[in-house]
Amino acid sequence: MNQAPTNATPGTAEGPSRRPGLRLGLFAPFVLLVLLALAWTAGWFWLRGRAEAEIDGWFAREAQAGRQWTCTDRSLAGYPFRFELRCATLGFARSDVRFTVGPVVAVAQVYQPRHVIVEATGPFRVQQDALAADVTWSGLEASLHVTGDGFQRASLVVDGLKGTVSGADPSPIDFATGHLELHARPTPGRFATDGAVDLSARVMRASLPLLDPVLGGTEPADLALDATVTRAAGFRTRPLAQELERWRTAGGTVEIASLAAEKGSRRLRAQGVLALDEQHRPAGQLDVRTAGLEQVIAPLISEQLGARLGGDGAALVGNIVGQFLGGRRKEPAPGPDAQDRPGDPPLKVLPTVRLTGGRVVVGPFAVPNVRLAPLY
After folding, report:
1. Tell me: the pLDDT tens digits for 312-366?
2. Is the pLDDT higher at 113 or at 154?
3. CB-based burial of residue 368 (10 Å sphere; 0-12 exposed, 13-18 middle, 19+ buried)?
4. C-alpha span between 180 and 174 (Å, rounded)
5. HEC states along 279-307?
6. What is the rounded CA–CA span in Å between residue 194 and residue 297?
7. Rounded-to-integer distance, Cα 197 and Cα 193, Å
8. Are 270 and 289 in contact (CB under 8 A)?
9. Where is the composition biased (Basic and acidic residues) (predicted)?
10. Are 165 and 139 spatial neighbours (Cβ–Cβ below 8 Å)?
11. Reported pTM
């Protein structure tokens, strides 16, 4: 009996020749994944080589400019998704200042290389002329975000900061803070024209025993500052005196939008504009409101001026100073940081505080025995 012919042909669904193609299709995604991983690995190591060359070049350019950086036991790792630059210690030396800190780790993601996060472990040791400081902390993290147009934001957060400054008069000077934050960014609409940079600082539980007798208490202080620094775009890593002189001659100012300080029951709120005069001393004008500090300021003025007048003159000066510093009307300051809390003494407006000619002038009275020294 003759069998009916079949219609199966090579390459049809019924034929066995499709099976090798099916197997290749199953493995294709894995092959592509391996190729992608190899390409990523090659790209990461190529970028690491570029980064190493850029770091070496930057160190060389800094050395030619008289700034010597050292990164001991330097390594660059972080494969596959980031770069981690590690230094056992980071050192800096220039003719006027030197410091060391470490270990230091700087991290940037491969997909966001212009956003760098830095973590550092103390101690931090710095020396400038006869002054030296040793600083430690429990945690420190900094971040820097830059673009082709320059930096977009810089931040520093430190916990458990404490240190000692030696070589000053008096010496040593101890200080400590529970928490510190510093933030900076180009001022929108003013950076291109005025070189303006916004600054925000918060200091919690700050202690400076040297000032406790003057301020009348040993309680830690909380500080908050929001300000704009003009002509700040030109700052580089030149010596501090050169940087400040460039800033002063360019007409740089510090516009204090809000300064708040609290130490126990004593509180202060201020705003104004500061600069440097031709003798390199702080100069400017501040609008100040206080609670409790008039008990510190008034005796300084009345005691010194009253001693010169003697007798009835001392009483007269005391009354005048009391009217100026203790009897002026209360004026609540704007903003949440400046609001009175239940039980707090009210804030009182002081006469305008002026820094002029190296003196601190409160209304018509210059604070005796207070001289503002040149900063450089």
Report:
1. 545 555 555 555 555 444 444 444 444 555 566 688 888 899 999 999 998 888 8
2. 154
3. middle
4. 16
5. CCCEEEEEEEEEECCHHHHHHHHHHHHHH
6. 36
7. 11
8. yes
9. 328-343
10. no
11. 0.79
